[in-house]
Amino acid sequence: MIDLKSKNLQELESFVTENGFPRFRAGQIFAWIHRGVRTFEEMTDLPKSMIAFLNENAQISFVQAEQKFVSALDGTVKYLYRLNDGNFVESVVMKYHHGYTVCVSSQVGCRMGCAFCQSTKGGKIRDLTPAEILDQILYAARDLNISIGNIVMMGIGEPLDNLENVLKFLEIVNHPKGICIGYRHISVSTCGLADKIRLLAQYNKPITLSISLHAPFDDLRSSMMPVNKKFNIKTLLQACDDYQKVTGRRISFEYTLVDGVNDSRACAMELVSLLKGKLCHINLIPVNKIQNGTFDPSSQKSISAFQDILIRHGLNATVRRTLGADIAASCGQLRSKRIEKEGSL
Ligand code: SAH
Q1: Any ligand 1 atom below 6 A from CB of 253
Q2: Ligand 1, atom 19: closest residue by C-alpha
Q3: 71, 132, 68: which is closest to 106 by C-alpha?
Q4: Strand, helix or coil at 191?
Q5: How far apart are CA 144 and CA 140, in angstroms?
Q6: 106 CB near ligand 1 (under 6 Å)
Q7: Measuring CA to CA, which residue among 136, 130, 132 is closest to residue 151?
Q8: For the segment 258-280, what is each residue's pLDDT rounded down to a tens digit?
């Protein structure tokens, strides 16, 4: 069955016209889907004959929330979703003063192998479809009765390793007849696939690019993030410069601080020399401990010292506020607990 939720408006138009229906029906179906309706019967402006055709030949897929946790500390909500094939992904809804942000997953698992990351431990199972990425937003908006202002692609998976589906998702979520979230309110986070950053630049939308940098020296970065052996820091930063030239967007760099590994003065100084003069923002994040992980978060004192060095040298650096600390809100944790319970990771 064809999943209409994964289709952009153009594809829906081809689908309806190829099957003998007028083009404008596609716009109606598209609007209904993104308003969150669950059945074709609810699309009350479609003729009965078309509803019958759709029931036989198409579907609207849904993720199901298997578990939901609400933080007593700050209201952060975390969902563990079961997909149609029984796989699990997670997403998180955070409330900021400017509105609600959803952090979505883009793959079941991940093949990037970052040493400190829970989501990559069992490798990549499969890519999410555009519909499965989108549905994490539709589900939360409906369940919490909120409108979502911002999207960050920082959940499970490497979005640029699933670029085609991610681009389709972005186009659908941005569409005026869809949820209509502006590209400026969407961040795509990557471990550093420089070739795909260049492809994203060709798409030329003002999407915020977020780079998981985590180390300023190639040997150190390669030991934490295998992707660095393919695209080293220089290549990655060159791709970021090119992205910025095309889109004019400020780049965001994520830097997860690990005690005694990447939080030294030398690392801070090297980071300064890499990023000085660039239009960018640095997010410092104390590493979250993962199961069987050997990485510990840096102390509050080292984090402040690290931040001070960056700021004194003119860089824009903030320490990320921890949200949902009581509900294991950082990604990968619920899914791996669940898989452990089912005995397959
Ligand atoms: N694959 C993409 C997006 C998913 S990870 C990427 O690498 O950017 C989202 C962010 O969480 C990344 O910056 C990632 O490096 C970071 N992260 C992963 N595990 C972490 C941990 N244990 N503690 C803190 N940050 C972590």
Answers
A1: no
A2: 117
A3: 132
A4: coil
A5: 6
A6: no
A7: 136
A8: 999 999 999 999 999 999 999 99
